[in-house]
Structures are given as C-alpha cells and as structure tokens.
Design goal:
Helix content: 25-40%
Structural class: alpha/beta
Shape: globular
Strand content: 15-25%
C-alpha cells in the first residue's frame, strides 16, 4: 500500500477556550490534488499554519511520508519538502521577477549561502528560476519589479516562488482571492498544468476552481471535518450545501 505523502491524525489547535481545529484527520496521497473548503472561520488557514510549523498543534500528529513533523519550525518543515503561498503578498516588491524566483530556488539548495549576490553567480538556481517563470506564465516579465506586476501576475509569482524550492507538497492559500474572472481563469489553467510530481493542497472559495482542480475535497466546519470525497460527492451532500455552498 502506498504511504500517504501527508497525514493529519486527530489534529487539534486551541487558542485559549477557542478550538480552531478539533481532531481533524485526512490524508493526501502522492500526486493528489486536494482542496480544503469551508465557510469563513472554519479553521482552514489555521490548518495550514499548523502543517507548515507556523503554529504548534495542541493535539494530534502530522506525518510526512509516515514521519512526524508536528512542532518543527517552518524552516525545518520547508527543508522536508513542503512549500506554501499565503493569502497576502509575500514578495520582494523592488526586486525583479527573476530575482524573486532565484532567491527562492537558492534557499532550497544546500551550500548556497550568498543569496543576495549577483544573479549570474549561481547557475542552478538561475536556471530553476527561468524554468519556473515559464511554468507560471511570467517568462516575458523576468526583468519587471515584482511590485509593478498586476495583481494577478503577483499571485502567479507567489506560486512560482513556492514552486522554485522544488517542493514535494505545495500548499496554496486562496490563490485566486481578489482576482477578476479573467485572472481566475488564467490562474486555474496554470495550476491545472502543473506537473503531477508536485502534490497540491489548496484552500479555495471559488467552487469552479475547486471543481476544475481537486481530485478530493475536505470540508471543514467549526474546526472539524464535516465530510470529504470527490467534488461531485461533496457538492451533493446536503450538509455541505447548508453550511457552505448554499450561502454562496
């Protein structure tokens, strides 16, 4: 039997008397694309924060290929092959697209210490940066400062920065939030075209995006797993319609 790439086992996180996550369990298999959906306050971003080491769980375990990672620092989690994009812009606005991607690629390579040195000094990260720029549709924008990109292009670059570290598991937190319909379609096509070698876990409110991308969907409600299954199975569940889809 194939070992899950990621497994959350009765994962909990409390903030004082508030239970943001309560015994959440699910698995993500290698090469899978799984969406986490739920209404605001369901615990989705808290779940990502716990997986990536931004927050320590108050109970339960997180296993990466069967090995526990709960309680590790974000840096240690990233070293094990998990990369993440955030809801808010996390780019170097004054640096060009190529340099944002090169820095991310260099950070994931042992022995690359001079991250702020000349771009031509590190051939492998530079090559990786150009490769990723092509994947995320920014090959023609390499010299543009990140801060001068359109909003949609900045979100594409954020995905590229996460990809540049060559992760095994990519976590995307609402990658289409705030986008126009045209930008959303472009982002969806880009994500659909990502190589299956990269396993994808995505938080997303746009059900068209979820339906296009996700092999499996996990629904959170008040910090608990309400249900999971294929998009069609989840969409047909009257409980999901009541707590989430019916309110859209």
């Amino acid at each position: 039997m194939t070992t899950p790439l990621l497994a959350a086992d009765t994962l909990s996180r409390s903030f004082g008397a508030l239970s943001a996550l309560s015994r959440v369990s699910f698995v993500v298999m290698p090469h899978e694309r799984r969406a986490i959906i739920g209404p605001n306050g369901a615990g989705k971003t808290t779940l990502f924060n716990v997986i990536t080491g931004e927050l320590a769980p108050t109970g339960g375990r997180i296993l990466l290929e069967g090995r526990p990672i709960e309680g590790l620092s974000p840096h240690a989690v990233a070293r094990r092959g998990i990369s993440r994009s955030f809801q808010r812009n996390n780019l170097f606005a004054k640096l060009p697209v190529l340099e944002n991607l090169r820095l991310a690629a260099a950070a994931g390579r042992p022995g690359t210490w001079d991250l702020l040195g000349g771009v031509e000094r590190r051939r492998a990260p530079l090559d990786r940066a150009r490769e990723v720029a092509d994947v995320v549709g920014l090959a023609s924008r390499l010299a543009a400062p990140a801060g001068r990109l359109s909003y949609g292009e900045q979100r594409q670059l954020e995905v590229g920065v996460a990809l540049a570290t060559s992760p095994r598991l990519l976590l995307l937190d609402e990658p289409t939030a705030g986008m126009s319909p045209e930008e959303t379609q472009r982002m969806t096509r880009m994500l659909e075209a990502l190589p299956r070698e990269v396993t994808l876990l995505i938080i997303e409110h746009d059900m068209d995006v979820v339906g296009s991308l996700a092999d499996q969907v996990t629904v959170l409600h008040y910090g608990e797993v309400l249900t999971e299954g294929t998009f069609d199975q989840v969409k047909a569940d009257p409980r999901v319609y009541e707590v989430y889809l019916g309110g859209v």
